[in-house]
Amino acid sequence: MIDAGRGRETTRPPTLPERSNPISQGAAWITSAEHQRSGTVLPTLAVLIDVGPGLSRARLDVACLGVLRVTIDGHSVSADVLEPGYADWVTEAEYTGWDVTRLLGPGTHVLCLELAGGMYRSFRDDDRWLKVATDLGDIAAAVTLRLEGESSGPRTIASDPGWHATRGATTRSNFVGGEDYDATLEPDSSVSGVAEWEHAVLASVPATLSLVAKSTSPVQIVDRLPARSVTKVGEALVFDFGQNAAGWPTLNLPANSSVRLRPAELLHDDGSVDVRTQGWGPVYHTVRTGEAPLTWHPKFMYNGLRYLEVSGLADLAVDDAWIEVLSAAVERSGEFHCSDDRLNSIWHITRESIRSNMMSVFTDCPQREKLGYLEQIHLLHDLLVRTYRCEPLLDRMLELTVGAQRQDGSIGLYAPEWQDFADPWRGDPNWGGAVVLLPLARYRATGDTGQLTSALPAMRRYLDFLLGDRDGRGVLRSGLGDFNGASTQKFRSVSLVSTASLHMLLQRAAVCADLIGESDAASAWRTSADVVAVDFTREFISGSATIGDDLLGELVFALDAGVAPAGTIDLIDRRICDDDFVLDVGEVAMAHLVDQLARAGRHDTLFGITRVTEAPSYGYMLAHGATTLTETWDGPTFGFSQNHFMNGAIASWFHEYVLGIRQSPGSAGWSAPLINPVLVGDLTAADGWYDAPGGRIVVSWRIVDGEFSIEGDAPHAVLQLPSGAQVAVAGTFSFKERVAR
User: Fold this and answer.
1) Domain span including residue 710
2) Is the pLDDT of residue 392 over 50?
3) Which ranges of 317-368 would DSSP assign to H, the alpha helix?
């Protein structure tokens, strides 16, 4: 059927189709009748569970279209929040589950599910900012509870219209815009109260929907940031948490109060909140308490913020506000520290931005968009896996990227792609090219060719699309160019960048094909790359070997793509030095620039980039108070996102070269680890570690009175000393030698 006003084919199946998952056991997609009638009321679902003696195991599995919170007798069933995560809900929904035995003793219990739309059902119904508009069907859940050990034998309780439903106290939830909560509307969720609710109804859901098991790490509360100060600004209170973060602004509120909360990353000169980076529309929460005090935070969305404005109260104590920091619940995979505080601070703000954007997918920012943009996951792949054990998120994003491919072979800027972005925003080879570059990066990190094989058909369709999109001169005219996130000059050198990137993708796809024995595909792609190189040279390289308009980013793209004249790295190096190490490049060029300079041994230049403070730069961000990496070089002095990790490539250089932990050239899966610190600038020490696939590698080096000393531990590695001497190490090691600086 076609649901009126939704534009998507939907159906009301009495049960989920049989599949190899626990929810296929008779569970139906259900919602509330009031939600179905209004389209805006958020449903709360519940069922009464009578548990007999002898229960030995209770397993709860839940699929949700939207975002849910699950409780038994008012107790959360898990520390996991914002479940189940992003999906292309036209084709699939994730299910997840928990052991809930500890919550179910003999007697009658209430299993309750509070639901909101998330990105699945996201449309404007007030003045709040909305990034993506989706309306795919009813907010709904499908549930099975498997009970074992009772005297009556094992049984399964599955969602159906016999369950109960009502509206909750969260009256609005916009995944980027904010929530409204009214404590006086809290439903009676006791056993007797739930029995009086109306019955649930079968939900309208996308007709092509199937279920997949959740494969990524859950989002959880991973930290707590107490407010450091509270200031009265006009009639409002402004809390400063001292650190930009992604999470739940949380408040202790008095009884019988009504407040309005506005998150912000920046302040105006008068101390009031500067909300420009939150979105191109209002972002706020409203909270009304009842007869009792209340500790409140959003349940179904989160904010990116350092500051919180509270209107409606004359006073609150500084310890009445904090941020429950949210992120994927994964462990650290590496660390870096050195003798230079500025490098340490750059590492810190980059790592904090990665954590802020590590949810069910890697997002671009935790405030105005929260989308799974594709360029950053391959450009910064090595840094991501060196900071957190995030491999499941990367693998999931590759699945979503392949799933987002259209019939014409094109791939957009983000995945899942719920809403089209108008040109030039939808298509760019450095975003869609994740289908080539991410599986190649995963192979180099793991040595496993499985993802190369599974992604190869999508690579083929995507490259065919790009090759067919060239004009009569063999040039790609679409894309974002050397995108830098600024309000001006966003799309520099579009044709040059897109065409050079096409050449690079063809070359690297050929490498992928060779690795899995697809020699015909490799040969065809190399032949196409040769043709693109000729077209690029004719169009963009003049007789004097000038590349395009001679911009730094253009030189970098041509070099990385392998279509630059000899000596281009020298020209790039000289240009940066002549410009006093101030960079005017976008995020894609920046990642390539760091890689190319490091490979060429231009470490003094990379170190010089970290020294700049007066002009837009890493040091400029820090000098102006950035606590996370900002979207643009001028960070806190410009009203764009203050929490993007896309320009964090320099931190990879810290770990791989300054600390010195990297793979030997040409190796994969860390089969040949190399420990080779670079002595650069006035650095006198570095410490850190990395949990490589074969085991943790620990390095600590010092220079004292002209003597270099290094010690550490590694399962196996080649250690290269500053003199060039190499030695094989296994286990703990310690070496010294004299150095001249």
Assistant:
1) 673-738
2) yes
3) 341-356
